[in-house]
Give the backbone structure.
Amino acid sequence: MKNNILFIYLGLLSFLPSCLDESSPNFLDAEETIIDGASAEAAVIGLYSAMQQPGYYGDAYLLTSEGHTDNASTGGYQNLSLDQIGHREVTGANVISENIWTAIYRVIANANQVLKFLPKIDDLEAGQKNHLEGEARAIRALAHFDLLRYYGEHWNMSSSAGIPIIQTPQALKDQPSRATVLASYQFIISEMTKAAGLMDQQIKDKAFININTMNALLARIYLYRGENEKAVEYATKVIASGDFQLLDAAKYQDVFRSKLNAESIFELLFDSQNRSGYNGSTYSRTDALRSELNYMASKNLEDFFKGRVGDVRESLLNFSTDGNDATILPDGRTQKYRGETTRDNSAFIIRYAEMFLIRAEALGSIKGLADLNFLRQKRGLSVLTPNQVSSSEDFLQAVLNERRSELNFEGHRYFDLARKRKIKSVLNIEDFRSIFPIPNREIIANPNIKQNPGY
Amino acid sequence: MQLLKIYLSVFILFSCLGLSSLNAQMTDLKGSVTDPEKEPLIGASILVQGSQQGTITDVNGDFQLKVAANAILIISYTGFTTQQINIGNQTTWSIILEPEDLALDEIVVIGYGSQRKSQITGAISSLKGKDIQDQPVSNLANSMQGKVAGLNVMSASGTPGAGLLVNVRGNNAPLYVVDGIPLLSESNSGLSTSFDLQGQNVGSGQTLSSISDINPNDIESIEVLKDASAAAIYGARAANGVILITTKRGKAGSQEASFNIYSGYQKIARPIQFMVAEEMVGLIEEARANDLAIFKKDPSYFGDDFDPSVLTEPLDNFDLSSGVNTNWLNEVSRLAPINNYEFSFRAGNEKTKYYTSLGYFDQQGVIIENYYKRFNYRLNLDHEINSRFKLGVTFNTTYSKNRRSFNDNTYTGIITNALGASPLMPAYEEDGSYASFEDYQANWLSDNPVKSAKEIRAFTNGYRALGTIAGEYKFSKKLYFKTSWSGDVNFNFDTQFKSPLTADAEAFGGEAFEGDFRNVTWLNENTLHFSETRNGNTLSLLGGITMQRTQIDRSSALGQGFPPGRLERISSAANIISATSEGTSFALLSFISRINYDFKNRLLFTFTSRADGSSRFSKTNRFGFFPSGAVAWRVSGEPFFNSLKNIFSDLKLRVSYGFTGDQEIGDFQNVTFYTASRYAGRPGYQLRNLADPDLTWQTNRMFNLGLDYEMANGKIGGSLEFFNSLKSNILSEDIIPATTGFTSITRNGGEVQNIGLEFNVNASLAKREKFSWDVNFNATWIHNEIISLNNDGVFLNAYDDLEATHILQIGHPVGSFLGLKYLGVDSETGDVQFEDFNEDGQIDYDDAQIIGKAMPDWYGGMTHSFKFKNIDFGVFSRFSIGNQVYNLIRGTTENLGWSNDGGLSSVYANNTINVRDRWKKPGDEAEYGRASFINLNLGLNSSQMVENASFFRIQNVTAGYTLPKSGKFSSIRIYAEAQNLWVLTSYKGFDPEVSSNGGLADRTAGVDYGAYPSARTLLIGLSLKF
């Protein structure tokens, strides 16, 4: 009898939920997630979210390149990686550089996942599906371009130091090599062009990639590539769209203080759940010490503006003791990323003003002057006369100055100096420092990746 | 192998001795040896006194012996009192041996059962409750420090309630099993993280330990299962060793109440000496003068537009006129009380027994505002329903409240700020407000540390209930079935409020974080036990099935903007910034078996195996099988050994080999997942991880050779162990090409070898009626080496935002430090020099190499216990040799007058007085370089910061007096105790035992970034029994 009770008990035990298949309330199997139109759209939203990683447009990508130029100096506690950037002595061990590299490839991996499953979706209209594919391809191409600017010899079409191009979800065993610079550009441009063709021309939301973004980015990429005619063509498309206008000089600060303003072509929106790191890196608090900030506006930038009487863009810089702690002086702070309580300032990935700068540079000294002067006037400056910029070298200098004034702290100067081969003369460092070293960690993990020359 | 040879030689020697026998005038003697219950004792030794002649009893307990008339026989059997009989003329004897309460044959708890120590075949160390009770520590693992060979317990910091670095034979984070319930090894608090100034999580913090909820005074015994044979019954979770904790239970027939109280004070044991105001100002002026002298010699050194006046103009707020001279360490620390009260009662009759206790522990931190309080309740109940059916209940509840010391691990914390603060800055202004750190010189600060301590109010509340109900049904004398149901319910609630006064929340008008952690584990275990003795050989069998499931839920919320007054909970926030909620779970299904075979109490065999299935792995790799085997030979039970019984009363040789596993990788690592993300108010997905579908168990195979000895009739006893273990298929975060989208993946790969020797001796040096002196000594030597890796030479960072501090490299131990090799100070220029390791003509971080290691080569402890009449006195000391610490906070506290400010208008941080030994003029041979305002003339992340952290510590001194029995009290003892009384070390930081980034990470262990200082405690106590 008693034994029977035992057997009944044992029998009951065998019905216990001894199942070893647990499922998570927070995660979805990546192979079974993108199954219909709604999930595909959510996965594309995720690409924008991925671009907001601190290593990419959330903070480090733009500011780090500024920190490596005469626009910015670095603060922080004894943060060796930050010091390396400030001293322009970046090594392959640099943690910040490693984070940038990783964050951008994370975006690419997410895009590849979308592009793998998107063709299998059948409940979307062709136009919708194409637009999603366009966004994913565009983001993937932009990510590759942003890598190329940091880690590849982007000015040299015969260089083998391009970047690894990743077009499919990677398996553990995959160990891609670096493409040449030319192949990198070819991939980026063909993808961008394809993406532009897939876009719904009616969608114009500036918080998302749209046809204007594509044209603007292509203008920038062609300029880097050295195909000036194409750069002019695409910049003109944006200008001709009529969707944008430059604000009046009096309202210049709104370019950074108001979201989705008339000068914004594509910006990433941040909010309280997705907080931006720019502010923390450059402002944090009114009375912050040097050691509490990562990037400060350099004295050199202040001196640069001293020669530009009337330039309203100086108003977004603060080099005074009013609002800055004495430890920051003689450096100052950019005001482009205020919003220290909310930390929701946008990342302006491409702005309208850049279109004029691209077209001016691509058109060259005589033809380009009009665009340059148009922008100068909008920013409170007098026009330059053709005589002042008659030589192409003078004109280029004028363009670079204008770019510095307009785009400081937006992650352009380092690449501008590199592509114009001015790293050595302006920054007084060796030429090989025109790009960052590939992170050592990548080279350890993938023996097919070769380090950049000089490092 | 050397050891084996020695033992074989000894064996041969014994055999030869055993052969010699005498032949005088002989009587034939016959007899039997039994225990009081008339059970034959097989293998009992019968020795003729004064000779080497003797025999042992056969399987029926019988013996025959030829002896000279009037000989004296010595009859001994392990676990029983040795008897001497004068045989006279009697030729037939029935000898009954009384069981002895010998230390060496105590009952030892093993997984799913218990054994006599003499029957143990594996490497198990046992501690009794008395070895660990009444110590002023919050975590019982603290009280195991230095007491067990092969177990290295390091306090990662002095934070009350903090987790510890517990290492069994070179493997970190053992499995804790409390009264049969395996506990989660991970930390549960959302506040156990380090944040940088932007609020980004940059590293793990001081973890809270899962066993700090157990009241140390409830503990009956602790067993450390060290080798594969002992631990394999816990299969897949046993690779890092198993610590079995058994709590007290009631006893039949007795009734005992006990009341214990102790009360004392703690202070920082080894404060760091900082410069006073005058010396600091002098250092800065010296630094500026040094730079100016260089400028005058060679202006080009400083660049074209350098204006030397910045080196001569007075610095703002940096002179002695204010008269302020703050000792910051004094400002943030205090003489902190520690109190413990506990009451327990145990009673029972033949049918029902119980133990119940109530405890309250209150430890104030040596850092202001910080404390840890714990309330415990326990009830352990055993009841015999009838002669076949027994019921057991174990129930423990704990509530703990921990006021956290903000960022006790990282550079924005209270301690780290206090370490760099300028003595010219007061804690408070004259109007009573907190001094604003921006107004005073010391750029290192992120806030006034006194303000941080008072105005960041962070609490971790722990609620835990741990309980088991178990039934045992006896089918027959030989066979019984046991089933148990256990639950571990563990909730943590974190609140953290940063007032608007703090730099961290000034911009937001106050910030609050609340985090909730809920863990429910249930466990069902069913075992069938069989045991039969036939012909003196005992066969014991164990088979069982266990099932376990753990469900964890976490949620948190962050709010900003709070109204004045003490409205500090999330509901009072103007803005809810973020909210999270997530869950995770895992399940385990296991089949266990163990066979013990005892051959005439001389040869003992154990075969243990466990098959574990885990939800953490894919279906195809889900089950792991972990077998082990062991043989023990009681050499002293052999006839030939009799002649040596005068020397070794017991000698047992053990050999074991087996496999254990590890699955501690967190849940849901075996599949590539999407997780939710959002953009512009719209929901989306992002890839969360990259998974290796082949992910499977990590295994640890271990060989163990052990020797248990007992000499001089039990006055000296102990053991010797040699082990060689190889962890393979290590589950680790391996780096992978970032082109996959991820930098690391959890996968199997790599091997780590641990070879070690352990030595342990207990000796009763004196045992008289009025005076006794007992000594316990243990020492461990260990060699840890990485044998293979998926990626060799991977850099690791103790903090995500700092340069790499550690490296994993084949041929070196886990936890090796990475950095530049420091070559000393150039006696002509005063510059610090480093080795150009890659010979590229430049000194940069590419020259980094291995410059040290965190793990010790030797460690151990020694306990002396004296008793003189009613006075008892104990000294416990322990040591560690060969361990190093990467003392990175010295980059701040020994900055030699550096200004990190581009404008050279301010000072960085105060210095310790260590830098008095600095270069001052050409020709000086100094430890530190030239003071400089412009350059940090110091080897950051270099071997200059790697220090020998070997130590000898007098851990505990206790003196007690027990009053003679009087009235109702059966015992009254008063005592005084000093904990952490004295440390001999050359280490410059607070304590050589330190690991700033928490207790669990052995790969990045041994970094000191201003971790919470350890305390010295003095207390008095009273223990009453009635």
